[in-house]
Input
Amino acid sequence: MIIFENSGEIDLRTVSTFGCSVKESKNPIGYFGTGLKFALAVLLRAGHKITIQSGLKELQVTSRNDLIRGKDFSLVYLGESPAGFTTELGKNWEVWMAYRELHCNAKDEPESKIFWSGEWLTAKRGVTRLIVEGDAIEKAHNSREDFILESQPIAKLGSIEVHSKPSSGFFYRGIKVVDFQKPAMFTYNQTDKVELTEDRTAKDPYSVAYAISRAILSHGESSLLEKVLTATDNNIESVFDYHGWSGHEPGRDFFPTVAKLQKNSLNKINQTALKLWREKGGGIISPRRINATEIQAQTLEKAISFCEDSGFMVRNEYPIFIVETLGEAGCMAMADMAGKQIFLTEYLFSTGGTKGVARALIEEYAHLKFGYADCTREMQNFLFGKVISLAEELTGEPL
Output
């Protein structure tokens, strides 16, 4: 059985009265006065046994079937008294959500304890306990780290704590309130106020990523910044936006870290961070350039001419530079979205030849000219459209 315990004796009227939130905490996680009713309904519906101890008083929370206007309902009872609601509450809730609710209620009250016990505890004066028996609640308790944060932070970015464990969600005061579309490299926990809905999810989930990016921008230290600014597409940090936040100035380490990363990891760094560094930090993207050999110069000229003959007007559209390397992962070409320039590596010329250089020029041109990202429907449509147009030219008539 799982036991949720607090000091003090609960007024049992709060269990059955809607809109009655009288938490003793100055900053409670919940405040609607409905969550406990939802949790009880969900647990009863899932077949759990529930007992409430308020001091020396002890009563069972049960359900009884009754007919209301020709429809069967399971009415919730506190002892022998109807609670005023049915097990229909929280129809979309799962048992882990009921556990989360009871956990939050306990944490909002003084001297909370939440634990498993294999023995029945006798009611005690000055103590409130909610005792739940059932396999599903025990499973939720054992997997609570998925939605309840119990670790210690490794960094604090203003009002946002950073915990080392990767997570798929955003937490508010230790409770998960948002599910990210992609997993995060770290676990982020907001300690300031977040407006919640009645089911303890963030009312405005889209603002969460913005809040984290602003916190990283203003407070991130170099060791953290090096990781989040080079996040891959597999992580939510890759879409964090660091540009255009008026009133949020970059912290001490932000621009130096961007400057360091663009030298060694230019192909991986967050583009909005690069743009901010160029505009406000006076940064110049500068992978080490090389002087083209005669063969490289001829290869580049031939590739540019081929692109133009094929309908890709790359000549003089954007500066093109041959560079020593673009960092790790074997990147051979890159469009600098912030500086509007194209980088081609020396390795590209030695391995790809004219065809490889032309292919790279077309791809980076599309990135800069139209903003099409790699592996997107827009890029696919653009390239197939060009293929069809070239085929029309070859046949001498339009489709």
The radius of gyration is 30 Å. The first strand starts at residue 2 and ends at 7. DSSP finds eleven helices and 15 strands in the chain. Confidence is low (pLDDT under 50) at residues 24-32.
